[in-house]
């Protein structure tokens, strides 16, 4: 499935709300501190979508994207947005913020200015400028500033009229899973009954790296069969939307744990569903054997208490008569998979495929 960026920013509710909040505050005339993680997914799409929506709502204002300049904010804006004659009218003794705030006939007044790549030492400088600029605006619509900073950037104090939006606090684990589920539903390389497992495995392994989630989902069966090798391939051959390389820092043992967690959530319930199916199907044979004492001295009195291993024992002793010879092998696969998960081991993909396919048909 293509257009993963559109799935994220248009169809994941909290991601879309984050985008909409930027637009809303800008239209309300509030400047914004935009706190983004280093690997914010599809940043260019976020910027373009905000720009497009602001154009629809306010066609008079233009959006400018500006890499943070070395000079102080006021001097940069004076030189960029004021004609030579207006710059010449500036007199020392008042601040650039005061001068620009009072000017009524400059193009700065009709701008949304998105400033990015702001160094830590420049952040408060921009915020102080915006606060003073807003204070000096009287008879005009002011410029609206969107300051893009990296998560954890130093904002030592709040400023009136400046709204802060934090991506990391807006997006939850569920949003990441919702993206994986929606993205997986269009995958053409694996069967539909594997979609929930593909989504769960991707969300577990990739955590908060949404673009890496997209890459893994697109690999489909390849990722399901060998997550470690697929991740290694993505890291070595693919790049993020901003051109930076992918990274994956978890150890093989940590990765194994994340795969196990996904299987515990998705495969284990399917095993239990299959166990319940066989217990109900052969309940009359099972009831005839009960009560039954296990090798651990535990008494099993009701059919629903019968574990897969005990059921296999009943079959071997001739107490339960299968109507389909293939069911014995299915039960063996189920027992082996359940034992692996119970001992913190992962189940191979072929067994996972069989279990989930079986679960879909019962």
Description:
The chain is of the alpha/beta class. The chain is built from 18 helices and seven strands. It has helices at 4-11, 13-27, 43-57, 73-81, 84-88, 96-102, 120-136, 167-170, 173-184, 195-206, 210-219, 221-225, 227-237, 252-281, 283-289, 308-316, 326-342, 349-361, and strands at residues 31-36, 62-67, 111-116, 144-150, 162-166, 292-293, 299-300. The chain has a five-stranded parallel beta sheet with strand order 2-3-4-1-5, sandwiched between helices. Strands 6-7 form a two-stranded antiparallel sheet. Strand 6 and strand 7 form a beta hairpin. The model has no long low-confidence stretch (mean pLDDT 94).
The helix content, as a percent range, equals: 55-70%
CA-based shape:
rod-shaped
Biggest sheet descriptor:
5 strands, parallel
The secondary structure category is: alpha/beta
Strand content: 5-15%
- What is the string of helix and strand elements? HHEHEHHHEHEEHHHHHHHHEEHHH
Number of helices, counting only DSSP H or I runs of 4 residues or more: 18
Rg, alpha carbons: 30 Å
Stretches where pLDDT is under 50 for at least 5 consecutive residues are none
Strand order of the largest sheet: 2-3-4-1-5
For the termini, the CA-CA separation is: 30 Å
Q: Total strand count, please? A: 7
What is the mean pLDDT? 94
């Amino acid at each position: 499935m293509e257009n993963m960026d559109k799935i994220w920013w248009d169809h994941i509710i909290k991601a879309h709300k984050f985008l909409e909040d930027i637009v809303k505050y800008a239209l309300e005339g509030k400047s914004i501190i935009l706190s983004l993680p280093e690997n914010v997914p599809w940043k260019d799409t976020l910027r373009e979508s905000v720009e497009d929506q602001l154009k629809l709502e306010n066609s008079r204002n233009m959006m400018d994207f500006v890499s943070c300049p070395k000079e102080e904010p006021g001097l940069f804006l004076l030189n960029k947005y004021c004609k030579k004659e207006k710059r010449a009218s500036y007199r020392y003794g008042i601040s650039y913020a005061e001068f620009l705030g009072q000017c009524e006939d400059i193009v700065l007044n009709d701008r949304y200015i998105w400033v990015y790549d702001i160094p830590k030492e420049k952040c408060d400088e921009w915020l102080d400028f915006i606060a003073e600029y807003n204070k000096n605006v009287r008879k005009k619509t002011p410029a609206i500033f969107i300051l893009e900073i990296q998560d954890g950037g130093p904002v030592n104090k709040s400023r009136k009229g400046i709204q802060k939006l934090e991506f990391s606090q807006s997006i939850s684990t569920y949003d990441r899973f919702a993206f994986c589920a929606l993205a997986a539903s269009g995958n053409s390389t694996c069967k539909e009954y594997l979609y929930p497992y593909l989504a769960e495995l991707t969300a577990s392994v990739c955590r908060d790296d949404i673009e890496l989630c997209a890459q893994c989902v697109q690999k489909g069966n390849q990722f399901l069969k060998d997550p470690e090798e697929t991740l290694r391939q993505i890291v070595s051959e693919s790049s993020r939307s901003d051109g930076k390389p992918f990274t994956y820092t978890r150890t093989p043992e940590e990765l194994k744990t994340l795969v196990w967690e996904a299987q515990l959530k998705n495969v284990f319930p399917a095993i239990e569903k299959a166990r319940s199916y066989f217990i109900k199907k052969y309940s009359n044979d099972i009831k005839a054997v009960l009560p039954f004492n296990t090798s651990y001295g535990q008494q099993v009195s009701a059919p629903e208490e019968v574990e897969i291993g005990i059921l296999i024992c009943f079959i071997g002793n001739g107490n339960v008569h299968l109507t389909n010879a293939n069911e014995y092998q299915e039960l063996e696969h189920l027992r082996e998979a359940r034992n692996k998960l119970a001992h913190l081991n992962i189940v191979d993909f072929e067994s996972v495929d069989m279990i989930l396919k079986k679960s879909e048909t019962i």
